[in-house]
Write a structure and sequence with these properties.
Largest sheet: 2 strands, antiparallel
Number of strands: 2
Helix content: 55-70%
Structural class: mainly alpha
Shape: elongated
Order of helices and strands: HHHHHHHHHHHHHHHEEH
């Protein structure tokens, strides 16, 4: 058999071991079912399905001065509606509030002021994040490509799509920890590692076959789960509003992007995060040679970093950014509010840099794991 054939046989064997892991398969089955439940709940849990048509009444209409004045004419001075019949204006009212402030009196500004206030709030956000002059110039160039007034689309369905997709980062933590914890520890616990290492393919080829099998399984799982979720959303609710500018969902976003593009960005980051988690879990399984310890480490470290990302103040910029980059919290539709950039010869946004960082860290951990694997072999001989 050729070298390629031997490796492929090892890969299939290692993949089959994962597929025969009842814990892994049950976990996947639960999350796959949850994708459909989430596809229903992300929208039906927030609004009565029959009400969607009322909130979509103004889809396609420009959010110009006339439309904003019309909306404000049906509210009191705090922006609250007095009649239930005006609920179609609710999304526009909420959009205005996101810009001017929740309890700001609507009598303090005119419809013509709203777009100016939006730009002022963006500038304030950049000052709070302590951007450099180079970063400010980067965003000024981005802002010049954003066309106003925006075209209105109701956000109920986009909210379900975007927030539902970001929730899968939490799924991944459990899915990876339960599926890959035993990849390397199984040999040690069953005391078969010495015999396996004595075979002609029991070293380099076996290690990379295990790695490829683990990564393939996780990427396949998250792909199937996400496709199931989006398919259900599309068939049940459709994708109305996903073609709108990102500013309809996050008014202070500062670049020319549709919600479909934002969804694509989240998916790319989710796949890169799956790769990173898989590499970390495989490394821990290799180091600890204990399935329970590996699960505890993967879940504990992931949730620990998530918690830490909410504690480090913005003033400690480098530390704050570094923790945010490797935290599950970075996989969020709110990433368009991260104005801080990464300067590596040129400026990169967080969603451009993080997937590259995850791939790099994954390769480092895989190579580090190979050294651990070789060392373990020597110690057993």
């Amino acid at each position: 058999m050729s070298t390629k054939g031997r490796f492929f046989s090892l890969y299939k064997f290692e993949l089959l071991k994962i597929l025969k892991n009842k814990v892994a398969m049950v976990t996947f089955a639960i999350f796959f079912a949850m994708a459909f439940i989430q596809g229903e709940g992300e929208i039906a849990g927030n609004i009565e399905p029959e009400e969607l048509k009322y909130y979509s009444e103004f889809n396609g209409r420009l959010l110009d001065e006339e439309f904003l004045a019309e909306t404000m004419s049906y509210t009191d001075e705090l922006g609250d509606f007095t009649l239930e019949d005006h609920r179609a204006y609710l999304d526009i009212r909420n959009w205005i509030r996101d810009i001017v402030g929740y309890r700001t009196r609507f009598t303090e500004f005119t419809p013509a002021d709203i777009y100016d206030i939006r730009l002022s709030e963006i500038d304030t956000g950049m000052e709070e994040e302590k951007l450099t002059e180079g970063e400010k110039q980067f965003w000024q160039q981005k802002a010049s490509t954003v066309s106003t007034p925006f075209t209105f689309y109701s956000n109920w369905i986009p909210a379900g799509v975007l927030e539902g997709t970001t929730n899968f980062s939490i799924y991944l933590i459990v899915l990876v920890s339960t599926s890959l914890a035993m990849i390397f520890s199984m040999e040690t616990q069953r005391k078969t590692d010495a015999m396996i290492r004595a075979t002609i393919n029991g070293t380099d080829r076996l290690y990379f076959a295990k790695i490829l099998a683990g990564v393939t399984y996780i990427l396949a799982c998250i792909t199937v789960i996400v496709v199931g979720f989006l398919t259900y959303i599309g068939l049940r609710w459709g994708f109305s509003g996903m073609q709108s500018a990102v500013q309809l969902y996050w008014p202070l976003a500062n670049e020319n992007m549709t919600l479909w593009k934002l969804e694509g960005v989240i998916l790319i980051m989710l796949i890169a995060f799956a790769l990173l988690l898989a590499a970390f879990s495989l490394l821990m399984s290799n180091v600890t040679r204990n399935g329970i310890a590996t699960m505890a480490l993967v879940i504990g470290v992931s949730l620990g970093i998530f918690a830490l990302s909410t504690m480090v103040p913005l003033e400690k910029r480098l530390l704050n950014q570094a923790i945010q980059w490797i935290s599950p919290s970075v996989i969020s539709s709110r990433l368009v509010y991260e104005y801080r950039l990464v300067h590596l010869g040129k400026y990169f946004t967080v969603y451009e840099f993080v997937p590259i960082l995850y791939v790099f860290l994954s390769i480092v951990m895989i190579l580090a794991g190979f050294l651990v694997y070789k060392k373990h072999e020597i110690k057993n001989n």
